[in-house]
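Changelog note: in this version the structure field was regenerated for every chain. One regenerated record is shown below for reference.
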Amino acid sequence: MKLKLTHTRNSLPEKTRIEITALLQERLTESIDLMMQAKQAHWNVKGHNFIALHELFDKVYSDTGTYVDLIAERIVQLGGIAQGTIRVVAKKSSLPEYPLDITSGKKHVAELAHAIAFYGELIRKAIATSTQLKDADTADIFTEVSRGSDMNLWFVEAHEQSEH
């Protein structure tokens, strides 16, 4: 089934917009998944560095929510329909499943760091694809997301390097 776009005066060729909206949709599902994984960690973390981790995981959640909006709005700008329901995300996200039975701060740090790193790799591939398709605006959005997710990965990984 061919993806049908809504009318827009955007000057990108329709073929490019179709390919870009499909790419954006893939990254949207993973962005929502990562956002909710961060919230899962935020809700359930316990232990020595509770408050620091609780607040950090909420920051990852909030930052990723910003990326969700950027990506979803770009889909619509190009004539697509952003599909961001939990059911769509559960079916289509390629992020590793987040364990639901952990409470240890150390384990949450390891799991969330893994998820952010995996996500960052997908985002960097999306930058390359967007550039190849000559959509500098989408590549710029993905670059912004990449910088932010790399910053969050650094913050989360710093907790793995503590002496406790």
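Spot check on this record: Residues 14-93+100-158 form a domain with the Ferritin fold (CATH 1.20.1260.10). The chain has five helices and no strands.
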